[in-house]
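Whiteboard transcription, Tuesday session. T.W. wrote the structure tokens on the left side:
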């Protein structure tokens, strides 16, 4: 009998075919490709700041309607759900506009610049009776379900430590999204959200946060080393940086064994289970041709939640979305304070 269970997947054809309105043309390019290639979800409208790029995006993906403004897109009666895929500082205003128009909303990570803004967005969605979720696509991957099953079964025993890293070599450019404070720059908001969210999924919210890091000339953080500890005593050691390429792996250590999430841990990759009795088993996810095709899983899950009448994702609930941003807020504060 295998040590690693098979993932429990949602049949993409078994959920409603929602009509998606897209705001932004950056990561949205990979998202729309993924949902059109691997799901019944369809992007039917788009808007973004650059009209020429937006028209080209629409032609590339077979999107019929290009709206001149966010207001026009969220008012479109043929749009069921709005996907917000713009720079972080724009998320709050655009998400609130979609919610006010009665649309369900999937918002790219981080959902907002601060935990307070995240809570405002999520509370507005609940009050309006629409589903609002952060696009933490890692939670919906097959390997994420395998990990949940292993923890539900107690395979690793009592969890003691989580480790995760995400580093990328990013050349400094003060005008780029990565380094411009006005565009939500910084390693923690771009890469660090993945490592903090992963730790949260395993050990929950931290009671203690300690961090050191460095600042770019523009004042945004460009690296962070983070130690977290929960009230129960579980710990996490996390690193992110714009200054080097790191393995982009994650590991969980428990009293009965160890679980490695293979690189890149944030996308479809695989897991290695090493038990204390010496048993080792590896499972790899090679079902999709490209890493970012895995964005399709969250769209299928989102549609299933809409069908069930849910107002938040059971796999990434509102309180956890806010908690992750509270951790990021504190890490950024500590690094800025030196």
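and on the right, the sequence the group agreed on:
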């Amino acid at each position: 009998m295998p040590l690693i269970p098979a993932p429990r997947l949602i049949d993409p054809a078994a959920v409603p075919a929602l009509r998606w309105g897209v705001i932004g043309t950056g990561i949205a390019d990979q998202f729309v490709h993924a949902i059109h290639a691997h799901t019944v979800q369809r992007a039917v409208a788009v808007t973004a700041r650059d009209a020429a790029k937006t028209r080209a995006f629409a032609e590339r993906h077979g999107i019929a309607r290009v709206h001149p403004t966010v207001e026009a897109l969220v008012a479109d009666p043929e749009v069921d759900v709005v996907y917000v895929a713009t720079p972080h500082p724009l998320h709050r205003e655009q998400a609130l506009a979609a919610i006010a128009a009665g649309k369900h909303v999937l918002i790219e990570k981080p959902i907002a610049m601060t935990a307070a803004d995240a809570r405002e967005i999520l509370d507005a969605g609940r009050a309006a009776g629409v589903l609002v979720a952060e696009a933490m696509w890692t939670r919906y991957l097959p390997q994420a379900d395998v990990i949940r099953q292993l923890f539900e079964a107690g395979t690793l025993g009592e969890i003691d430590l989580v480790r995760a890293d995400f580093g990328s070599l990013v050349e400094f450019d003060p005008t780029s999204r990565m380094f411009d404070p006005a565009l939500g720059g910084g390693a923690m908001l771009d890469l660090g959200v993945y490592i903090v969210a992963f730790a949260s999924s395993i050990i929950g919210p931290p009671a203690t946060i300690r961090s050191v890091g460095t600042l770019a000339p523009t004042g945004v953080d460009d690296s962070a080393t983070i130690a977290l500890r929960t009230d129960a005593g579980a710990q996490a050691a996390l690193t992110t940086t714009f200054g080097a390429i790191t393995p982009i792996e994650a590991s969980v250590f428990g009293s009965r064994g160890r679980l490695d999430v293979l690189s890149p841990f944030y996308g479809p990759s695989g897991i290695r289970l090493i038990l204390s009795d010496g048993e080792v088993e590896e499972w790899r996810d090679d079902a999709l041709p490209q890493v970012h095709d895995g964005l399709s899983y969250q769209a299928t899950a989102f549609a299933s939640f809409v069908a069930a009448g849910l107002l938040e994702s059971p796999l990434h609930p509102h309180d956890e979305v806010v908690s992750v941003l509270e951790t990021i807020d504190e890490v950024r504060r500590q690094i800025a304070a030196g």
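Someone added at the bottom: Residues 12-137 form a domain with the Rossmann fold fold (CATH 3.40.50.720).
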